[in-house]
Design brief:
79% helix; 10 helices; 246 residues; mainly alpha
């Protein structure tokens, strides 16, 4: 019951911080308003960020499973949760810290914290890799979105510091970053068999396209890369089913 209590308190803390960041709002600006200020071409359309609702709902479902295991004294669930006792609270703390850094305009610090969030999720992902799908689901979707968010944060930091990440125009830089995100999605499809992570990447790429109707090269590349990931998911699932039935 100790683990479930700790994880629940940290989850409540980060949910409250997210709510206050936009309801107050923190430092007088919402999270989205700061993002709009930098006009990063790789930032997806606003509706894409509704995925946070799915992330937090899935984490709440995961907490429910932890509490069930605690009351039933399920040794396997308790043992599995022990592996996350450092990384999950640290993830929640960094999540709240990122909001503070972002809302108070410290873009460079926000990227460092975002990298920390990504590292904690990688550690959680590795520790839950052999667990049941329902246990892994929240962290697959969460890590998929944070992978995209890290790329966006890098782009915002470059704009903030007036750095050129790749030779050429901002459009070319955006296209390169989109390809990097796609490669990540394909790696997870074919090497990790993680459809959820890849679907999140496809979701982000599609809404990057939606947001960039002014730049048709970005728009149609976003749509095309999202479809490419979906085709690879379908192919990987087909091969998997054929292997099982053969």
């Amino acid at each position: 019951m100790r683990n479930a209590t700790i994880f629940t308190l940290f989850t409540i803390g980060v949910l409250v911080m997210n709510y206050l960041a936009n309801s107050l709002p923190l430092n007088g600006v919402t999270t989205g308003e700061i993002s709009d200020k930098y006009n990063s071409l790789i930032t997806p359309a606003g509706v894409a960020f509704s995925i946070w609702g799915i992330i937090y709902l899935s984490l709440i479902g995961w907490l429910g499973r932890l509490w069930y295991g605690a009351f039933k004294k399920d040794e396997r669930i308790i043992r599995d949760s022990d592996q996350l006792l450092v990384w999950y609270p640290l993830n929640c703390t960094l999540n709240a810290g990122w909001l503070a850094a972002w809302h108070y305009g410290d873009v460079n610090l926000s990227l460092l914290i975002m990298l920390g969030i990504l590292i904690t999720l990688i550690m959680i992902y590795l520790k839950t890799e052999s667990f049941q799908v329902l246990w892994k689901f929240p962290f697959s979707i969460y890590m998929g979105w944070i992978s995209v968010a890290t790329i966006v944060n890098v782009s915002v930091m470059a704009i903030h510091n007036q750095w050129v990440l790749f030779p050429g125009e901002a459009v070319n830089t955006t296209l390169i970053m989109m390809v990097i995100a796609t490669v990540l999605g394909l790696v997870f499809v074919h090497h990790k068999r993680d459809v959820i992570y890849a679907l999140v990447i496809a979701w982000a790429l599609f809404f990057i396209g939606v947001e960039n109707t002014t730049f048709q090269s970005i728009q149609y590349t976003g749509y095309g890369l999202a479809v490419l990931i979906l085709i690879n998911i379908a192919y990987a699932k087909f091969i998997q089913l054929r292997t099982v039935t053969s």
